[in-house]
Amino acid sequence: MMVLLKTYNDNSYLLLCSYLTNRLKEVQLFIESIRKSKDYPRINEIEEIFKETFSYVNTRGQLSLKIERVLNPHYLLSPGELDHGNSSWFISLNIQKKSLKKLNELYGKQLSGLLRIFKKVFAVLNSPDNAIKEETLKKYEDLIQGVNLKMEEFLFSTENKQLIDKREKLKSSVIRNLPHSGFYHMTHVENLENILNAGLLSHKTVHRIKMIKHDISNIEIQKRRNRTEKVYGRNIQDYVPLYINPSNPMMGSTKVIEVLSQVVLLEIIPHVLVQKKATLFSDGNAAIEETNFYNDQDKLESIDWKLLQEGKWIDGTESQRIMCSEVLVPEKIEVFYIQKIIIKSESALKNIFPLFPNHKGIPIEINADYFKTYHQN
Question: Which member of 16, 100, 113, 123 has the lowest number of beta carbons within 10 Å of its beta carbon?
Fold first, then answer.
């Protein structure tokens, strides 16, 4: 499973499909040039094009190619020079890597479909010279063009994370204080599809448009969050909440524990704190009156970083409030701010793989440590 996850995260499958789609376009141009020049004998060059396309260097041992000439029975009676009349071409083109085979099933056999088209195009070599006419080559051109259009729909591009690099960055001194490498939104895996399509939306918005499929939040605490913060005068429920340390009291709540194997943590790039206008951070749980809110990163020293880094608290004390310190982003966090999906075990993968977060440049990590809680009653 870990090999499969690595292949999924590094986008080997998509990169291979993209490579073959581009090479198929080159084959189309080659066939078009023969059709226009009427230099039909040049079609034999397609053998070398295929060998170069599927060489070990280009496909890194992920695919296997075998091309050979097969003798027709009557050739043995009167052997001579090999030509279209006494032999035919045989091509074997298969997926070799096991993890790619599994992903091929997951992706609706897009890769094996591409290979079938390559084999079908190669069959033009088995046509007698006098049968290779303009209409024959045009048929293959149209076939390739149709496949390329479908593959372009499949190989949609990832969200542009370059925007983050061009904007203001969080100070390195603040980054060093973080318990982990980002801020965290906790949700049920059933909500992931909508998040990957629309981004992370505020609590109020997702309930208003009925976009949340499985709510793991505490109803009573959500009622207490339905109040106005004093910095911008917004309702706290109009923000997308992110935890500074996900291993907090929320992780130990009854509703979360009941479905822990299906809980996902979305790791948000920390620069969201300064790149999204009117973003706040708190020195504790936003549902509690005593919690303070800030909008100036120079005041981040107000947070008890030592406690957040240690990740330990005592129930019913101030430490419990502090462990739920938050970053609050108004209204929406775009998908390209999500830098990782973290799950506790492999059991959630079957629900995440088909959503293809890797298309958007979001890898999946299995790490049970994020789901542990360290507290005393």
Answer: 123
